[in-house]
Amino acid sequence: MTVQKTSVEQRLSSAVGLEQVSHVYGANETTVTALKNVTWSFTPGSFTAVMGPSGSGKTTLLQCVAGLLEPTDGSVLLGEHRLNGMSEKKLATIRRDLIGFVFQAFNLIPALTAAENITLPLRLAHRATDQAWMNELASRAGIANRLSHRPHELSGGQQQRVAICRALITKPRVLCADEPTGALDKASSKAVLSVLRDAVTELAQTVIMVTHDPVAAAHADQVLFLVDGRIVDVMTAPTPERVAATMTRLAGED
Ligand SMILES: Nc1ncnc2c1ncn2[C@@H]1O[C@H](COP(=O)(O)OP(=O)(O)OP(=O)(O)O)[C@@H](O)[C@H]1O
Asked: Which of 24-38, 126-140, 213-227 has the highest mean predicted lDDT (pLDDT)?
C-alpha cells in the first residue's frame, strides 16, 4: 500500500510538505534510489516518527526535510519556502532560522560548556541570547544545574538534552532528530523523548524523528513506515506493540 496526502488544504497547513520527492545517490551504473515519489505533509505542532528497515531511506528523507540534501526530483516546502533551486546562501539562512537538527552522536563541542554549546547557533548568527528562553529550555530539559559543565562531564542523556536545547534555542519551526535515542540507555531515552514530546505539546514545535525503536516511536503522534524509499504505512496513536507488529510484518514482506 502506498499512502499519500495530496490535497491543497493539507499542503497549506503544513510545516513541511514533500511533493513527489525522489532521491538518487550516485551516477551512471552505481546509482541507489533512496526515496521514490514521497508525498507527505507534516502538520504544524505534530510529532512524527519515521521507521523502516535499514536502508529504507529514513535519513535521506530527514535530510531532504532539513535542506541538507537537495532531492533529485520533487519539491520540499518549508511553510511558504520552496527549498528546491534555492541559492546555498538563502538555504543556509533558512536552515539556521527554521530548522533544528539533533543527531544520534550529540555533536557537542567538547571545549565549550553546556550553556555555550546551547547558545552557539545564536552566536554564529550574531544574535543575542534570550536568557529567559535559555533558562526555560534548560529547566524543561532538566539540565539547569549542568549548564557550566563540559560535555565529558555529562551523561549521554544529559548531552542529548543539551543538543536538543541547542536545536531549540533559535525557536526553529521544525526539529529534525535522527535516532536521538540510538546511543542511550532506557532511562536516558525516556528523558530525551519527554523533552521532545514537551517541545511539541507545550512549545508547539513540529518534530520529525527517525528511530529504530518501537518504544521511542510510540511517543509520537503518528508513525510513517518506509520501505524501499516509499511510505508504505502510517499509524496514528501508536503503541510499542502495534509499531513492533507492523515492523515485523513489513520485514516479512520485504
Ligand atoms: N551518500 C550516499 N551515497 C550512496 N548511497 C547512499 C548514500 N547515503 C545513503 N545511501 C543509500 O541510500 C539508501 C537509503 O539510505 P538511508 O541512510 O536514507 O537509509 P536509512 O533508512 O536511514 O538506513 P539506516 O536505518 O541503516 O540508517 C541505502 O541503500 C543507502 O545505502
From this structure: 213-227
